[in-house]
């Protein structure tokens, strides 16, 4: 089986009825690039930049960040790289950036909330990214966006830094896409409004499920509530996809669920454009998608949100439609 998959490395991902979808990889550092290329990913759908901050004893400088981003953009040779601005807080702490003790860190001061508050940190990262944009095809996305105003503020800060760098004669790309993670239920519900201002969405199921089910993603006692196929989650996902498509925007998924064969059968039926997963899952999922006729899974996806009641119902439903072997 592994040998069969290896043959698909240089192919793009085309379903049995000839539709193309993008299979992308998630990375944490430039070192992960090798695995991305070896497994034939068509893009990087999530570059988690926290590691740059966590592997350092002080805030990483603009130049240090620029070098890391450029390495990844150049290494991908024109394929898109979506970089997420820092997602610190929650369970991720920095020794040199003391954060207040909080009762509920996952609901607290984290990610874009820190970036909008400590703008010097955010602007440094954005400048490094904008400078690196010249070396490839860059997308930038903001984590943990809850309101349209947060997105607009973050985008305006990006625009200020972009205009300044451009005016100063720094080489930059003119087609950087600026999008957002959809990982808070409020933004999934209000996706039609967000779709008017963001260039793209990437659905973060790890957090979207945690917040929708009110179940800590790291707590084993409640891990049974991690239910990616629960119709409640799927209806949110469907709303995000449809809202984006109405505005002509693309939608990806970069949470764990994007690399899950059962989930992907449903997502294909909903028309999700990009699937970003651990590099080692890419070939397996490409092989699965090549076997699927999308007209068949459209019906499956419809049933998954109208007829099914539970997560388990949808596991059974997918198995009825597709031989997952
Ligand atoms: C997610 O929440 O699904 C996600 C991709 O981000 P992280 O796992 O880094 O929170
Ligand atoms: Mg997240």
Automatic annotation (TrEMBL):
It catalyses: L-histidyl-[protein] + phosphoenolpyruvate = N(pros)-phospho-L-histidyl-[protein] + pyruvate. It comes from the Bacteria. Residues 2-293 form the PEP-utilising enzyme C-terminal domain. Its cofactor is Mg(2+). One of its GO terms (biological process) is phosphoenolpyruvate-dependent sugar phosphotransferase system. The keyword Cytoplasm applies. Phosphoenolpyruvate binds at residues 48, 84, 206-207, 217. The keyword Coiled coil does not apply. Mg(2+) binds at residues 183, 207. GO terms for molecular function: kinase activity; metal ion binding; phosphoenolpyruvate-protein phosphotransferase activity. Keywords: Cytoplasm, Kinase, Magnesium, Metal-binding, Phosphotransferase system, Sugar transport, Transferase, Transport. One of its GO terms (cellular component) is cytoplasm. The active site is at 254 (proton donor). Its EC number is 2.7.3.9. It is found in: Cytoplasm. Belongs to the PEP-utilizing enzyme family. General (non sugar-specific) component of the phosphoenolpyruvate-dependent sugar phosphotransferase system (sugar PTS). This major carbohydrate active-transport system catalyzes the phosphorylation of incoming sugar substrates concomitantly with their translocation across the cell membrane. Enzyme I transfers the phosphoryl group from phosphoenolpyruvate (PEP) to the phosphoryl carrier protein (HPr). This is Phosphoenolpyruvate-protein phosphotransferase.
């Amino acid at each position: 089986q592994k040998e069969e998959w290896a043959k698909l490395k240089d192919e793009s991902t085309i379903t049995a009825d000839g539709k193309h979808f993008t299979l992308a990889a998630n990375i944490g550092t430039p070192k992960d690039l090798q695995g991305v290329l070896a497994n034939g990913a068509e893009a990087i759908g999530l570059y988690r930049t926290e590691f740059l901050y966590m592997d350092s004893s002080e805030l990483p400088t603009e130049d240090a960040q620029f070098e890391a981003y450029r390495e990844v953009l150049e290494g991908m040779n024109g394929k898109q790289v979506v970089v997420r601005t820092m997602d610190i807080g929650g369970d991720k702490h920095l020794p040199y950036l003391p954060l207040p003790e909080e009762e509920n860190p996952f609901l607290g001061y984290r990610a874009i909330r820190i970036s909008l508050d400590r703008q010097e940190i955010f602007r440094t990262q954005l400048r490094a990214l904008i400078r690196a944009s010249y070396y490839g095809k860059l997308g930038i996305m903001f984590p943990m966006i809850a309101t349209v105003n947060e997105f607009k503020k973050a985008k305006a800060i990006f625009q200020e830094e972009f205009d300044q760098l451009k005016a100063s004669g720094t080489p930059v790309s003119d087609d950087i896409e600026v999008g957002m993670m959809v990982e808070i239920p409020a933004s999934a519900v209000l996706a039609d409004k967000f779709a008017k201002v963001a260039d793209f969405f990437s659905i973060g199921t790890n957090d979207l499920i945690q917040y929708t089910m009110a179940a800590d993603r790291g707590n084993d006692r409640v891990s049974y509530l991690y239910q990616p196929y629960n119709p409640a989650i799927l209806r949110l996902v469907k709303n995000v996809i449809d809202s984006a498509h109405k505005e002509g925007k693309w939608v990806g998924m970069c949470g764990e669920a994007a690399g899950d064969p059962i989930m992907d059968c449903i997502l294909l039926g909903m028309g999700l454009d990009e699937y970003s997963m651990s590099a080692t899952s890419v070939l397996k999922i490409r092989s699965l998608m090549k076997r699927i006729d999308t007209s068949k899974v459209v019906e499956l996806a419809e049933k998954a949100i109208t007829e099914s009641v539970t997560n388990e119902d949808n596991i059974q439903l997918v198995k009825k439609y597709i031989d997952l072997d």
